[in-house]
From TrEMBL:
Coiled coil: none annotated. Keywords: Iron, Iron-sulfur, Metal-binding, Pyridoxal phosphate, Transferase. Belongs to the class-V pyridoxal-phosphate-dependent aminotransferase family. NifS/IscS subfamily. Its EC number is 2.8.1.7. The keyword Signal does not apply. PANTHER family: CYSTEINE DESULFURASE, CYSTEINE DESULFURYLASE FAMILY MEMBER. PROSITE patterns: AA_TRANSFER_CLASS_5 (PS00595). It comes from the Bacteria. Residues 8-372 form the Aminotransferase class V domain. This is cysteine desulfurase. Pfam families: Aminotran_5. InterPro entries: Aminotrans_V_dom, Aminotrans_V_PyrdxlP_BS, Cysteine_dSase, PyrdxlP-dep_Trfase, PyrdxlP-dep_Trfase_major, PyrdxlP-dep_Trfase_small. It catalyses: (sulfur carrier)-H + L-cysteine = (sulfur carrier)-SH + L-alanine.
Length: 381
């Protein structure tokens, strides 16, 4: 627990603090003494310096996911990357296919774009997972049609931590000449991703989910994609016309540095997170009626979703006010509807209303976990 906060932070799935080394790298790009120039200014050293740093960051991001630097477009975050991937593909004049497959447990950034495309005449199939939150390859296969353009699935679910088998589904999509988009907002920088090995055509990620700054992300676009993307933002033709706007050097450098640190620390971070997760799961397993949501074998340990039957998540959060936790996705927490993810997994509305998401990260201490376990136990005297 930090000295200036009486609250213990356990909401890493919502956002993460920026790593000090990332802050240091970003600071260098903001003052007159550093590399503050516009990377598009090609006639003087100020622009050259920034362009060189951006190229370096591009290599760091590409390395994290097994891509080539030329296959990346920088965006304002995963939400914009998802919009560019889905709308960019669907609305391109050369595209004649009108069917998209996704799942009912996706992030709102995907679901809301799909709803928008439905209004434009596209047909969307929303796959329901099994009770553990898993989408299987056969479901994807049976949903495919002659005019299926794209399958869009998240790698790690933001509410339950369930990991989808993207390699298996990527292989299927490639064999059927259907494009495959992966929302990796919750997995990039935390789990090993290889876009080539997994046959991923498009992948969205966001820096602020793995100790980088808010306001920057990237879209991986596989070289040789059979269908082109229409840009969403028009202007000066930056990034090969894919996303106009002056590149925010400090944000991009921050993203690159966060990727570099994530690669160095991935195993260590995962081991620590797994230890915290196991301790809490062991303790709550003994509490009467508590339900752990989501598959426990195919699971990222940074996210723990618990239902407390007969209790309301708002009341639980009030009782746990020493802890920063959430009742679902931070993006829709102002919305008091039960979690669409848990409903799609077959949970009742009451059970979905009684759920909490606890998420651990790099700075979670053993003491933080001990205090949480004590507090959870006190809810069930």
């Amino acid at each position: 627990m930090t000295a200036h906060h009486p609250c213990i932070y356990l909401d890493y799935a919502a956002t993460t603090p920026v790593d000090p080394a990332v802050i240091q790298a970003m600071n260098h790009c903001m003052s007159f003494d550093g590399s503050f120039g516009n990377a598009a200014s090609v006639y003087h050293p100020f622009g050259w310096d920034s362009a060189e740093l951006i190229d370096g960051a591009k290599e760091q991001v590409a390395k994290l996911i097994g891509a080539a630097p030329s296959e990346l477009v920088f965006t304002s975050g995963a939400t914009e990357s998802i919009n560019l991937a889905l709308k960019g593909l669907a609305l391109h004049p050369d595209n004649s296919k009108r069917h998209i497959i996704t799942s009912a447990t996706e992030h709102k950034a995907v679901l809301d774009v799909c709803a928008f495309l439905e209004q434009k005449g596209f047909s969307i199939t929303y796959l329901n997972p099994d009770q553990q939150g898993i989408i299987n390859k056969d479901q994807v296969l049976s949903a495919m049609q002659d005019d299926t353009l794209l399958v869009s699935l998240m790698h790690v679910n933001n509410e339950t931590g369930v990991i989808q088998n993207i390699t298996e589904i990527g292989e299927l999509c490639r064999s059927k000449s259907v494009l495959f988009h992966v929302d990796a907002a919750q997995s990039a920088g935390k789990l090993v991703i290889d876009v080539k090995h997994s046959n991923i055509d498009l992948l969205s990620l966001s820096a602020h989910k793995f100790y980088g700054p808010k306001g920057v992300g990237a879209l991986f676009i596989c070289r040789g994609l059979p269908t082109h993307l229409s840009p969403m933002i028009h202007g000066g033709g930056h990034q090969k016309g894919m996303r106009s706007g002056t590149l925010p050097t400090q944000q991009i450098v921050g993203l690159g540095k966060a990727c570099e640190i994530a690669m160095e620390r991935m195993d260590a971070d995962l081991n620590i997170t797994q230890a915290h997760y196991d301790r809490v799961v062991d303790s709550v397993s003994g509490l009467s009626g508590v339900i752990i949501n989501g598959d426990q074998d195919r699971h990222y340990p940074g996210i723990l979703n618990l239902s407390f039957p007969g209790r309301d998540s708002e009341e639980l959060m009030m009782r746990l006010k020493r802890f920063a936790v959430s009742s679902g996705s931070a993006c829709s927490s102002a919305d008091r509807k039960p979690s669409h993810v848990l409903l799609a997994m077959g949970r009742s509305a009451d059970l979905a209303h009684s759920s909490l998401r606890i998420s651990f990260g790099r700075y979670t201490s053993e003491d933080d976990v001990k205090h949480l376990i004590q507090a959870l136990s006190a809810l069930f005297p």
